[in-house]
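call fold target=RHOMBOID-like protein
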Amino acid sequence: MATLEKERPPKSEVLIRVNSTRGGSGSGGNTIHPVEVSTAPAPVAYREITHFKKWVAWLIPCFVIANIVMFIITMYVNNCPKNSVSCVARSLGRFSFQPFKENPLLGPSSIALQKMGALDVSRVIHKHQGWRLLSCNWLHGGVFHILANMLSLLVIGIRLEQEFGFVRIGLLYVISGFGGSLLSALFLQSNISVGASGALFGLLGGMLSELITNWTIYANKAAAFVTLVVIIAINLAVGILPHVDNFAHIGGFATGFLLGFVFLIRPQFGWVRERYAAPGYSRLSRSKFKMYQCILWVVSLILLIVGLTVGLVMLLRGVDANDHCSWCHYLSCVPTSRWSCRTEPAYCLSSQIGSQLNITCSSNGKSSLYMLANPSSSQIQGLCTELCR
């Protein structure tokens, strides 16, 4: 919100005209006639306070468009009719979706996602493909996945960009996504991971820390704090369901929470009022930020740098964080009688006799016979995934 301060109008001067009459006598020789001058007030000049101005949100819509474009390209690369035995919405041609048993989100195969840059820990460690820690944030597993994430990004991201500008919110989004990918890679090393959820949770974390560090300038702050905490808790609770990468959510939230103290700090109102006061007003010596804001800024920056550095070193050394935390896997999935948390990738044994393809799933022992001549490796992998689910 823009705050405006009036500048004092300059004092108006009254002009005096002196009429001199020559040749007169006595005291009436020189007569002074005051002339009335209109004293209309000078125009008031307003100055916008840049620390609280509204920005035009354009970066977040660009992020949404980029994610949609990447999903379309992924579906083009997937080419379900060529690489799979059966497809959903085959009328869409190469943009048709994988079978529901293989991908219930209406999306591509895991092979296509790997080609496009999904987070695959083995490739990050052994093939030095660290760029996957960033690229995976721009990919999605299906139509339902991208719709949920992009709607959330528009609701949360546009408001933040209007308040703090594209530079700070853009950095908050990208770095939070990286932090989420890093924690996911340390704990979930057997499956691939995609999605912008880590970056989205980073925005939520930034909103929470922004409320805390700028606590004194908000009205109804307690209600806002409770509401935001409840929203975050509900979203994190959803992450305990199977096939949801809650470690990316937690890592993104923690990164965004620390970044919020660094990027989203606001100066106190007293300092702003003095900075934009008109000339002549008395000024007191006020600090730009409160002491607790400076402490949070320093501590958060140190924790952020140390955390990301240590995590990256551990990942590149091939450390499996589950070996050091036996219960942490429950943060991503809690097994119940209704679902299992087994996350092992699908492995199958296949044999071909003429046009008969026999596939046996190694994890559950199921076997099936398919009439398929000269199947491709991607077709066999798709059938294997369906059989092992």
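return ok
The mean pLDDT is 83. Strands lie at 4-6, 17-20, 30-33, 46-48, 348-353, 356-361, 367-371.
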